[in-house]
Amino acid sequence: VTFCHSNAQTVRGNSKSLQTGSTALLRGLVEGQRILSRAKRGWVWNQMFVLEEFSGPDPILVGRLHTDLDVGSTPIKYVLAGEGAGTIFAINEITGDIHAMKRLDREEKAEYTLTAQVTNRDTDQPLEPPSEFIIKVQDINDNPPQFVEGPYRASVPEMSQVGTSVTRVTATDADDPVYGNSAKLVYSILEGQPYFSIDPNTAIIKIALHGMDREMREEYLVVIQAKDMGGHMGGLSGTTTVTVTLTDVNDNPPKFSKSMQNFVIPEELGIGKPGGKVKANDRDIGENAKSTYNIIDGDEKDVFEITTDAQTQEGILRLKKPLNFETKKSYTLKVEAANIRFDPNSGAPFKDTATVKIAVEDSDEPPIFSKPTFVLQVNENAPINTVIGTVTARDPDVTGSLVRYFIDRHTDLERQFNINVDDGKITLAKPLDRETDMWHNITVTATEIRNHSQISRAIVAIRVLDINDNAPEFATEYEAFLCENGKPGQVIQTVSAVDKDDPIQGHYFEYRLIPEMLNNPNFTIKNNGDNSISVLAKHDTFRRQKQEMYFLPIIVTDNGTPPMSSTNTLTIRVCGCSREGIVQSCNVEAYVLPIGLSMGALIAILACIILLLVIVVLFVTLRRHKNKPLIIKDDEDVRENIIRYDDEGGGEEDTEAFDIATLQNPDGINGYLPRKDIKPDLQFMPRQSGGPNGVDVDEFINVRLHEADNDPTAPPYDSIQIYGYEGRGSIAGSLSSLETASSDSDQNYDYLREWGPRFRRLGELYSVGESDKET
């Protein structure tokens, strides 16, 4: 097979790749312009076609296949196989011409490998072995440069030096970088001069102008162009934008808008409250614009302070001490604003000062007490209206209003004290008792007469001074125990005393027996020297059988002026003790009783008591059963049937028990309705038992009926009132005959038949004709 290509140098191929079965020889043939209708540059080299990529709808001839077997007599057919065969490339089976049917794009596929073979057209039998060749697509400049990562954003500090790098851009070209200049790019700036420049080869953007100030212009838009073909005429180009932002540096100091600022602050302004605001503006932003404020002059008494608001960057002037118009009416301060961050090497003064004049505005102030707290003293025996002390207050204003004084009664609920509203003298209103309250803390208010809303308060602590008005007494209720086998001189009890008074020199108590007991033969006392005494026994012959208890009166006197004394009695019980002196029993009965009861005797006594209780319970139970009336429930005794009817029932259709409670009158719920269906406690005369014994039965029944009507213990008990109500709001009214005044009523009951089938039977019973009335 011979491979032919237009405008090509023909080179003999490698004959080793061909088999000689069909006696074919690969050789180069030159086919001129007559073979190709539209020729482009191409050549054949080592079985390779090189074809430039092209665009257009018409097919283009790539080359021609030819074999020595094609002599005209042999029916041959050229067959093409491999990449793109039949789709991109088509072959003429007779002539062997290969055409490209579609647009070839090197950026999509740079080369195609195909196989050519000659077969018999009739039998499709191969006449030669297949031969492989390559079609390589040659690049042309058909792709412009592209900035894949654009548009770009970059930043650079303001005031940067010329040549400072800003950023780097990158463009790509899809054309073949090794063939020609289709992919050789050159960069240039279309917009952004004279501020910026770009290196044409490295695409690094740099500062081109000195002194670029962010405060003048913060953002720049730079247009960058990339052009292939080395920037020569006819090359393709692409553009992108770079937004360059100048970042702030601290190159501007803070500046007050006015060098003199004036404020008026009322003198009642509270501590820590803002009195004014100052602000120094800074053209920088962010951390470079933050400033701090300080008072550098004019505040010798440390009355003011200035703080910085982190949000607004304002200096807030606050009070550290209260203002007083009467003392000082104005202040002149020098305030400095300085940047927090600055470059010491810049040499610029990153601070500014301003003068702040403050005028104190006079306010109506409340009265001021001479002291915030007053401490007064008074004796507890002071008479009523005694002057305890005086509180004073004044109006600090220039006008000087008069002051009136009052006691806050919430602090003097007992109204123990009074105060003179004009001069502030506090007097006693009720007697005092130091032992009840040693201190009285009251609040006194001072109010201006001219303006009652101006009020101030002061605490007055009144101490009640003690006088000796309470006698000493025993510290507790003593009860001493004396052993029968005790020794003479034995300490029975140590006694101490207490006194509610509180003398300055302290307590000292004197103990003595009453005169009648000075020479008693049983007990004596001894002073212990610590405001206590010991009670001693004089002998050892104390016996419980002789005397069980002794009472020893003791007089206790204090050292007050005048001395106070009281008589206290010590109770001494004689007890039986063990050998070690431990009290065992103090009762005479315990000594008189002989040996204790045995366990058997105690069980017998307990059994007797239980038996006695059982007998009593049985007796009471029998008594209660006797009081119950005898009711004969023999259904055969016709004489007793009259007393067994104890339920009115619900009518002839009611075959079940009826709940009588549902018929009770609700109007009587809130009132008092005595019940008569409770068995009375009164006993009635017992009736005689036995039959009539020949007496007339009618008379016997009447006698029994009379007894039943008058016997309150005989059932059924009278409950007639609970049937006298049959509901409220009924158009029928009451149907009960119990409320009928007369049994011979002329009422017409014919309307009952109109109420329905439920009342038809009732209407028939109550309806009486003329013949029935006569009968």
Automatic annotation (TrEMBL):
InterPro entries, alphabetized: Cadherin, Cadherin-like_dom, Cadherin-like_sf, Cadherin_CS, Cadherin_Y-type_LIR, Catenin-bd_sf
Query: What keywords does the record list, in alphabetical order?
Result: Calcium, Cell adhesion, Cell junction, Cell membrane, Glycoprotein, Membrane, Metal-binding, Repeat, Signal, Transmembrane, Transmembrane helix
Q: What Pfam families would the database entry show?
A: CADH_Y-type_LIR (PF01049), Cadherin (PF00028)
Q: Name one GO cellular component term.
A: catenin complex
**MF GO annotations:** beta-catenin binding; cadherin binding; calcium ion binding
Its membrane topology is listed as:
Single-pass type I membrane protein
Q: Which CDD domains match?
A: Cadherin_repeat (cd11304)
What superkingdom does the record give? Eukaryota
List each coiled-coil range. none
> Where is this protein localized, as stated in its record?
Cell junction, Adherens junction; Cell membrane
* Segments forming domain Cadherin: 67-147, 148-256, 257-374, 370-474, 474-596
SMART domains from the entry? Answer: CA
Task: State which residue ranges cross the membrane.
Answer: 591-620
> For this UniProt entry, which residues form the secretion signal?
none
The UniProt entry lists the main location of this chain as other
Biological process GO annotation list? adherens junction organization; calcium-dependent cell-cell adhesion via plasma membrane cell adhesion molecules; cell migration; cell morphogenesis; cell-cell adhesion mediated by cadherin; cell-cell junction assembly; homophilic cell adhesion via plasma membrane adhesion molecules; morphogenesis of an epithelium
Q: What does this protein do?
A: Cadherins are calcium-dependent cell adhesion proteins.
The protein's name is Cadherin 8
